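Before a colleague's protein record goes any further, I have to sign it off. What it holds is a sequence and that sequence's fold in token form. Would you go through it and say whether the fold makes sense for this chain? The record follows directly below this note.
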Amino acid sequence: MLATSLFIIVALIMLTVGYFAGRKQDDEGYNLYNRKLPMLGYLVSYAATFIGAGFFITGTAYAYRYGLGLAWFFLGMIFGIIIFGYFAKSLKEKTKDLGLHTLPDFFSWRFGVKAAKVLTFITLLLLAGDISIQLIGGGKLLQSLGVLDYSVSVGITVVVVAAYLIFSGFRAVIWTDYVLMSAIIILTGILAVFSGKYFQPTPEQLNLFTVPIGTTLGFFLFGLFGPFSISTYYQRVFAAESGETARKGTWLSSLAILLPGAGLFIIGMTAKNLFPNIDPDIAFLRIIQLGGQTIALVGALVLWAALMSTVDTLTFAGSQIFCKDLLGKPLSKKNVGVGIVILLGLGLIISFALPSVTAVALMFLGGGMAVAPSAFFQWFMKTLKQYSVITSLVTGIIALFLYAATKGISPNVVAVSFAVSTIVLLSVHFIGKLFSRQRKT
């Protein structure tokens, strides 16, 4: 009874926050905060998008499997955020008068409509996959605690998020991100106290170089190039009140990300030592339960609130892409609402079809790496053509699924997708330039 009551209270809090966020705003406020997102809102929202519920669950699962080897991801992330922050200011200033909302919008302006269409399909699948990561994690938590079974908890999460998101739009995303970061601070503090009592890492867990090279490359590459491939980050740059807000907000967000990131190492390695034979997907939950029933319940429900806030971020970005870039419709409240329902429905289907957090997460990371080379190298290759980008995107995704089908889903898929996409992008680009010069002569 207590568990159900707390579950309902958290849902009502999120609905209330969403309701108050959505009052008295026009379409531009609904879609992009009137492009006046302040520094604090940018920082909190950027960090919250990165460290949602899936971050805790999958991060703990990776730390459980690979120990300190997960540090390669955070090392790459630090460099990636520094680089992306540097370009974020230029991105904001160059596009401030273009009315861009999404990453495919940017590709359409930079490369052409065909490249944007290919990216639209890929990005929608990636966002649906990331949504399913959050839904799977939340469903497993609530089922394990005996609050609700998996299917019911996932369904209720989708309904609650859809309700406040359709009403309030991007402003609800930002406001609920404040809730998310508060939840993360509370949860990290609680777990730091309890996990520290049992933290006795083995030498193998503390060795950075016992991790397979493919896993190491996968972690590092996604940390480094991930920001360039994630549509929600571009959305925040377009919403920022200035280029300086985008740059400094991106850099400062790394501080908010590293604190809970450090906690993942302790939680995951402690879980491995205490529970060596469990499913890594539930390692985070088992550590929560060490504090007793009350702390376990509070921790899970706080994490569920974080889950909803992350799902709304991903869903709203995806709904804009669905309406504007896929269907070519204006971003009215009605059209975006339809996109919200469709994208959440797709995430729901994936969460039932493949209920493994780490498997879905790795495919999501691999898909992002097919996008990253084009988004990154375009800053240095001003003559990069549309045909090079399209070929790179398509072959990167094909390589991802071929490798997963033949070798299985592992962190190697990230490195494979990135390598193939990069090689194809650069090869097609330089071959195209060579033929172009020959025709001129």
About this structure: The chain has one domain: 2-357. The mean pLDDT is 85.
